[in-house]
Amino acid sequence: MTVGVVGGGQLGRMLALAGYPLGIDFLFLDPSRDAPAGKVAPVVHGAFTDPHLLKWLTRECEVLTFDWENISVEALREHASRRGARICPPLPALAAAQDRVCEKQLFERLGIPTTRWRAVGSPSQLARALAEVGLPGVLKTRRLGYDGKGQLRVRTREEAHRAFETLGDVPLIYEQWVPFDCEVSIIGARSRRGETVVYPLNGNVHADGILRLTRAPFGPPRWQRTAARHLTRCLEHFRYVGVLTVEFFVHKGRLIANEIAPRVHNSGHWTIEGSCTSQFENHLRAILGLPLGCTRALGHSAMINLIGELAPRERLLACEGLHLHDYGKQPRPGRKVGHCTLVEDSAAKRDRLARRLLATLAPGVRFPRAA
Length: 371
Known about the structure:
four-stranded parallel sheet; 17 strands; 33% helix
């Protein structure tokens, strides 16, 4: 039983590590010679769109999946139509996640609250969007935006027009700025047979657009129920197979959908040690038609991303109960090079230890109050 993965980053690496105990083998396609997945599985090096490599991957594997959403839907769709390849998650979900306007339209179609927004393709459309949505707001590229890239917050009309020039001659979207109290995400999986499981809600903290801290379970039960209901609508809409994440802002107790991620997600890394079944294992179970695993939390978890470079292993591993994941990447500013996880028997103890650890690893990031 072999799974082909388009993309060999840290998410692909963790998929392989979750699959080996189940007797699953992996083949990766990635252009990088030092892709993190290459340390644990075979990687063929080449473009994600190379038809010959996609053909080879299909011939050798039972199913294709991906660990990054900014890959060519057109190449995968054409390949699937010619070769009959089975690709999970479904390509319509991948296409929706690649275009912020499509995401907003999806939320509105499914009755999921989201921000006010307008598509922007010209200075006159920007002026109309500012009048209809209001200020402050965020101007974003419609495509290829992740980890805070391709977006600028604007407070005045002058700032908005400068942002328009800065982002360049590409399709944009202008969104209402939400003065959120916190950010949360919900992760779930749906199998080929329509079985669905949902994980406890994640409370997330970002800095410079990059996730720095996740705590789970998080928030009151009504947030969990609301987020799970919205997630389930998305899963059913796409007849989804695999793991899907929906991210929300929380403003005055109300969940406002921001975006979807059709893959295993950074805010779910805590599930490796903190849940009965990790998000990575459940993704594999889902796409291979295996029964889905229990998503119950085993305690109160905190996950901290390690950005730029790893702290000395000796210092990290001296922290009692800490689980370290080194992605094998070269240090670089703003790069996710690893993460660490704590699982404790109470939220109070988790937060006390996580606050201390965050202050050491990311001293400029504020640890939030409890939900």
